[in-house]
Amino acid sequence: MNITCDQCKETFTASGEQISFISDSRKKGMRFIMLECLSCYKSFSLNPLTMTVPVPEKTTDEDLLRCPCDSCYGLISYVEDQKPFWGCGECGSVWFTQSDLFEAIEASIKKHPYRAKVYKKKGNNFMPVPLENEPENYEETVARE
Ligand SMILES: [Zn+2]
Ligand SMILES: [Zn+2]
């Protein structure tokens, strides 16, 4: 399976792991996933159903928020589709409004208070803390939820 990286525009052959990730996400009907380019090692998003990049993508303050779903530590991106949404490229959850997303974060912090450490609250908005300020074992802890 050949994939073209949206960052460096190189075409690379997907690894076995990537191929099974893509076929799993197709089965789940996911509209976008994050893949790591095997040529430049940057991450880019891909719609697994069409194998195209779901662009134009806009960078917002909410980009790179940690996913609020149980046992998922994916990062959230804003995708400007016909109906724009915020989505997690790991578990495929999507939120169509910012307030739905923030409510989901609020609920996840109530349930798992340590999760508050990966967000910065500005007014009613959640922003991501820089990755280096996250608790060291954040991903392991979330994976055990
Ligand atoms: Zn690349
Ligand atoms: Zn997720």
Automatic annotation (TrEMBL):
Name of the featured protein: Transcription factor zinc-finger domain-containing protein
